């Protein structure tokens, strides 16, 4: 026992010494950004960053300016906060800043999927083919059928459908959009009633994974939570397995084409199952939460709701449903809703907070808009957090914390795209989908499914907050940097199908 005690003691001294030396070994070189290694060896600022990313970055920006390097869990991240200087990072034609390497590490850890060399190009190619143009129209038709099934039932409108129902708005939006998206992308069996029951079970399990997701990415789970994540991963690998999907009809061409590519590359079926889990998350992890913010702001601001309803009535016409009738809609109207487009863009400005990350592949210089040049070190990560640097910038968006449904509308009703900072027009004025090589390839489908759901809600249903004076719920600080934010608590609301008379 004494010998083991001496060995463990010596090992502890070595580890502590290594951490201490590694902290001191990194020194700021000439022309590098300000370096802030934090109070704890190796961890650096990781605890403060993970506790509240927004408040941490505000503090760092006030302390160091628009460019700074911080240590987070043994890694060094250089944050660029000036939106006028994003161009060299986002465009990066010389490929010295790599996105794919970081993405590979993340999807392997979270979904168990080991990407192929050509996966990135394959996903973007399939998304361009099937999530835009004619392919998108086909998906929209399937989405309309799925929403009708979920919102009206197997036989369409029921005789007692005009009764008021109460639910949490976040749960309601997330639940319906997730299930509709899942069924649209991964198809149905011959028993649609059973499909609906299974979709509900999958949503319940998906939310368990979703809640653990931020701390899972940061490796902050407890022992039982690690076991739960493993269980959930195995469950989704099974439910979304290629074997299971062979029993279904109507699997989307988007999913089918990507799986065909993996099959031709001789990817094992078990790895294809993990790919399906990744695509379910990528396609459905943000649309429900994003729609929550849109509907909440519409309910909170009557003038916005009235403007959207008037536009919906204009493009959809009569929207009364008879008994046993399903939704029908000319889906071309999704291209003719500038007011709703502005409402959604404003809601995403307030509610989306992605982090754009690139790995520095070799020492290089970053030239800022003001002419200042900084050296970026090989192996570090460069980060952009547009929520703070763009979406909450009062110079670009006056009164940035206030919801203005027409912020992205010109006086003539067309989309507004001209925004300025310090008198100069800027290209990146709202970045809910990311930008450059990491821009969300499924954004057009995500927007379409959200718009369709919202149009159906405001046109066919009566909606109201249980408490009209309820304030905007605070954002769950754990969700900063992970796409669409989520509220710290749900908001109760009532809904019913509009009476037929």
UniProtKB/TrEMBL annotation:
The chain crosses the membrane at residues 6-21. Heme binds at residue 440. It is a single-pass membrane protein. Substrate binds at residues 109, 286, 381. Belongs to the cytochrome P450 family. Signal peptide: none annotated. The gene is LOC102842638. SUPFAM superfamilies: Cytochrome P450. One of its GO terms (cellular component) is endoplasmic reticulum membrane. InterPro entries: Cyt_P450, Cyt_P450_CYP7A1-type, Cyt_P450_E_grp-IV, Cyt_P450_sf. This is 5-beta-cholestane-3-alpha,7-alpha-diol 12-alpha-hydroxylase-like. Keywords: Endoplasmic reticulum, Heme, Iron, Lipid biosynthesis, Lipid metabolism, Membrane, Metal-binding, Transmembrane, Transmembrane helix. The keyword Heme applies. GO terms for molecular function: heme binding; iron ion binding; sterol 12-alpha-hydroxylase activity. Its cofactor is heme. The keyword Isomerase does not apply. It is found in: Endoplasmic reticulum membrane. GO terms for biological process: lipid metabolic process.
């Amino acid at each position: 026992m004494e010998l083991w005690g001496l060995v463990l003691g010596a090992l502890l001294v070595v580890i502590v010494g290594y951490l201490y030396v590694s902290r001191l070994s990194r020194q700021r070189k000439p022309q590098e950004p300000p370096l802030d290694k934090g109070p704890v060896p190796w961890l650096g600022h990781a605890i403060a960053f993970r506790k509240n990313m927004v408040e941490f970055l505000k503090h760092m920006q006030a302390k160091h300016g628009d460019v700074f390097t911080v240590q987070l869990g043994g890694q060094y991240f250089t944050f660029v906060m000036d939106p006028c200087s994003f161009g060299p990072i986002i465009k990066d034609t010389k490929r010295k800043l790599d996105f794919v390497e970081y993405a590979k590490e993340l999807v392997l850890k979270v979904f168990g999927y080991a990407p192929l060399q050509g996966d990135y190009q394959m996903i973007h190619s399939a998304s361009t083919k099937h999530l835009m143009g004619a392919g998108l129209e086909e998906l929209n038709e399937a989405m309309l059928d799925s929403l009708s099934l979920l919102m009206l039932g197997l036989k369409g409108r029921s005789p007692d459908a005009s009764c008021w129902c109460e639910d949490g708005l976040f749960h309601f939006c997330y639940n319906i959009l997730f299930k509709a998206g899942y069924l649209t992308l991964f198809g149905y069996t011959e028993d649609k009633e059973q499909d609906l029951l299974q979709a509900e079970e999958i949503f319940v399990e998906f939310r368990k994974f979703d809640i653990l997701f931020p701390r899972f990415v940061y490796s902050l789970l407890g022992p039982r939570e690690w076991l739960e994540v493993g269980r959930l991963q195995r469950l989704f690998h099974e439910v979304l397995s290629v074997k299971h999907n062979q029993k279904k009809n109507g699997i989307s061409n988007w999913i089918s084409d990507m799986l065909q590519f993996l099959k031709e590359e001789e990817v094992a079926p078990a790895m294809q199952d993990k790919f399906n889990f990744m695509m379910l998350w990528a396609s459905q992890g943000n649309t429900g939460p994003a729609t929550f913010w849109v509907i909440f702001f519409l309910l909170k601001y009557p003038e916005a709701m009235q403007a959207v309803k008037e536009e919906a009535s204009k493009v959809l016409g009569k929207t009364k449903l008879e008994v046993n009738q399903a939704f029908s809609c000319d889906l071309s109207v999704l291209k003719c809703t500038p007011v709703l487009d502005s409402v959604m863009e404003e809601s995403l400005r307030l509610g989306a907070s992605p982090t754009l990350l690139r790995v520095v592949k070799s020492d290089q210089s970053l030239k800022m808009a003001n002419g200042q040049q900084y050296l970026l070190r090989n192996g570090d990560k460069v980060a952009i957090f547009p929520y703070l640097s763009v979406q909450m910038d009062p110079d670009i968006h006056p009164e940035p914390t206030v919801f203005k449904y027409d912020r992205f509308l010109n006086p003539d009703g067309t989309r507004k795209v001209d925004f300025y900072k310090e008198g100069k027009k800027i290209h990146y004025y709202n970045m809910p989908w990311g930008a450059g090589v990491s821009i969300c390839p499924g954004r057009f489908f995500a927007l379409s499914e959200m718009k369709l759901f919202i149009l159906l809600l405001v046109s066919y249903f009566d909606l109201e907050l249980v408490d009209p004076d309820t304030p905007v719920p605070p954002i769950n600080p754990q969700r900063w940097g992970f796409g669409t934010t989520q509220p710290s608590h749900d908001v109760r609301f009532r809904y019913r199908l509009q009476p037929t008379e």
